[in-house]
Structures are given as C-alpha cells and as structure tokens.
Amino acid sequence: MIDEFILQRQLIQLGNRLSNRRQHDLAAQQLTPNQSAVLLYFAKYPGKRIQDLKDFLCVTHQAAQKLVMKLRERNLIESQISNIDGRDHLLFLTAAGSKQVEQLHAHGLVAGQEFLAPLNETQKEQLAELVNLLLENHLDGR
To answer: Is residue 7 part of a domain?
Structure first.
C-alpha cells in the first residue's frame, strides 16, 4: 500500500527541484518566472492585449502592465495600435523577444531531457497521462 503522505512529499520535492532548475536557467537569461511566462504567452498568442495576459496569468491589470513595461524596456515586446479599435494596444514579441523564447525552449528541453532520462518511452507516456490527470482535477489551485 502506498503511503500517500510520503508520495505527496515526494511530489513536492520533485516540484522544488524542477523549480530550482528553472530559476537557475532563468537567472542566466536575466528573467523572472513571470517574465518568461509573458514571453511564452506572446510567442503562442501574438497580438493579444494586456487584458488577455492578465486573465491568462490570473494577476491584476497593474501587475500585467508592469511585466509588459519591463519587457518593453528590454526591447523584448512591442505594441501596435489595433486597426479595429484604436484604444487597444496589441502586443508582439520583437526579434530579440523571439530569440529569448528560443533560448527558453532550448534550456527547457535540455532540463526536461535530463530530468526524464531515467524513463523509457512507455514510462514517459504513463507519467504524462498521470500528470495531466492530476492537473485537470486541480485546475482551481486547491
């Protein structure tokens, strides 16, 4: 029989190790976790607004604005006025922002490969199914 308390502790330990690795990789790129999330968001959803980002990150409008402002100062994000509604500013990655996203993917791929190296393909598929199941059932953060 599995000791659920021990399993939960192991999952926390695993999460902490992944988080520490991520922090290390992001520090090398001079990014915070939230800044990396913003870059990855606009790589996937170019032309979205701060309002969309706020909803995606579940942060206040001010927090989303501050994140975008910092990345604009670093020339990683640029805004364009919407042709449909001149009040809307649509956000896009700059060339430098796209390059930064490529680096994020490369570092994440290496970290993932190192982390998953002990598993065979069948085990990776099983792990993916279990992680997805857990995430789907706990989307509200409880």
So the answer is: no
